[in-house]
C-alpha cells in the first residue's frame, strides 16, 4: 500500500489539510461538511494544547457527526486525502482502520475488527488507494484491500482483496475479467 499517514498528512499545510477532501466531494454538501469537521478534529487531536483549547469542538463533533448524523469517523482514524462519503448514514469505521487516498465510502458501511474466540480482537482492515466501497458493505478483521478495488453492494469482506479487482458477495469473492470497471474508478 502506497499511502502512509505520517508522510502524506504531515507534509500538508493547515488549510490544505482541512480542505483535502473538498474537491473530491463536489456537489456533495453533506460529505464536504462531515469531512471538513473530521479533518478539523484530526488537527485538534495532534497536540494536547489543542485538545484542551478545542475540547468543545471535539464534543460538538461527537454529538453532531457521530450521534446526530450516524457517521463514526474517529478523530484518530488514518484516512488519505480525497475521501468521498456518499449518502452519509450509518457509516462506522474503527479508529484502527487505515484508508488510502481517493476512496469512496457509502451508506451503511462498517469497517472494523473481529472478536476472536479467546475474547481478543483482530487488527482492523487496511484499504489501499482508489477503493470504492458499495452500500451496506462490511469489511472486518485483519484484512488488506489492494489499490483500485471495487467492493460491490452488500459484500462481507473477511479476506484480503488483491489490487485491481472487484469483489462481491458474502463472503466476498473476486470477480474475474472485471478490470474494465476498476479502471473507471481510477478516473474519478
Ligand atoms: C442511493 C444509492 O444510489 S447508493 C449507491 C449504491 N450502489 C452501490 O453501492 C454500487 C456498488 N456496485 C455494485 O455492487 C456493482 O454491482 C459492481 C461494481 C460490484 C459490479 O458491477 P458490474 O461490473 O456491472 O458487474 P455485473 O453486474 O456485470 O455482475 C457481474 C457478476 O457479479 C455479480 N454481482 C454484481 N454485483 C453484485 C453484488 N453487489 N453482490 C453480489 N453479486 C454481485 C453478478 O450477479 C454477476 O455474477 P455472475 O457473473 O455470476 O452472473
TrEMBL record:
SUPFAM superfamilies: Trimeric LpxA-like enzymes
Gene3D superfamilies: Hexapeptide repeat proteins (2.160.10.10)
Keyword Transferase recorded: yes
PROSITE patterns noted in UniProt: HEXAPEP_TRANSFERASES
Keywords: Acyltransferase, Repeat, Transferase
Family, per entry: Belongs to the transferase hexapeptide repeat family.
Protein name according to UniProt: Serine acetyltransferase
UniProt source species: Mucilaginibacter aquariorum
Amino acid at each position: 500500500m502506497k499511502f502512509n499517514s505520517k508522510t502524506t498528512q504531515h507534509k500538508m499545510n493547515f488549510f490544505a489539510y482541512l480542505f483535502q477532501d473538498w474537491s473530491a466531494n463536489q456537489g456533495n454538501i453533506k460529505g464536504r461538511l462531515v469531512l471538513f469537521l473530521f479533518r478539523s478534529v484530526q488537527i485538534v487531536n495532534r497536540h494536547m494544547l489543542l485538545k484542551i483549547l478545542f475540547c468543545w469542538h471535539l464534543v460538538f463533533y461527537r454529538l453532531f457527526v457521530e450521534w446526530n448524523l450516524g457517521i463514526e469517523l474517529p478523530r484518530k482514524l488514518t484516512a488519505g486525502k480525497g475521501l468521498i462519503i456518499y449518502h452519509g448514514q450509518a457509516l462506522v469505521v474503527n479508529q484502527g482502520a487505515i484508508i488510502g487516498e481517493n476512496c469512496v465510502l457509502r451508506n451503511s458501511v462498517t469497517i472494523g475488527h473481529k472478536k476472536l474466540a479467546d475474547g481478543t480482537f483482530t487488527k482492523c482492515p487496511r484499504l489501499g488507494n482508489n477503493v470504492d466501497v458499495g452500500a451496506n458493505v462490511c469489511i472486518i478483521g485483519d484484512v488488506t484491500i489492494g489499490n483500485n478495488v471495487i467492493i460491490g453492494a452488500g459484500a462481507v469482506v473477511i479476506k484480503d482483496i488483491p489490487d485491481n479487482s472487484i469483489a462481491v458477495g458474502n463472503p466476498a469473492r473476486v470477480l474475474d475479467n472485471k478490470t474494465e470497471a476498476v479502471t473507471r474508478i481510477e478516473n474519478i
